[in-house]
Design a protein that fits this description.
130 residues; alpha+beta; single chain; Nuclear Transport Factor 2, Chain: A
Length: 130
Amino acid sequence: MALAVLFAAPGSAQAQDAAQLKGIVEKQIAAFRAGDARAAYGYAAPTIKRLFPDPDRFIAMVKRGYAPVYNPSSVAFGSLRETARGPVQEVFVTDAKGQQWLALYSFEQQEDGSWKISGCVLTKSPGASA
């Protein structure tokens, strides 16, 4: 499936959404770093909350399967892309051991217009050492 880059003029609704989506990821990672399971869980979409019905289960899953985003040593944002399922934000993270990862965060817009994280696909960054 091809991904198209989301182009947005400064001040447009899309640009506002792009800033909001980046902020959501930043805030969730900050909550992970602070050990605030409840705050981190608050950024998850209802579909995620149905799979992990409380903050403790959610955090346990993140620690087990997404350690690089749970405790990154560095974070850098890449492109925001529009897909058939909604926006996807590239986030480049480096874990505590120096391994580089690409996290693709997907989002779901809520009835009130806000955005929540609907998923994250984590892979080693291209060219990263094993």
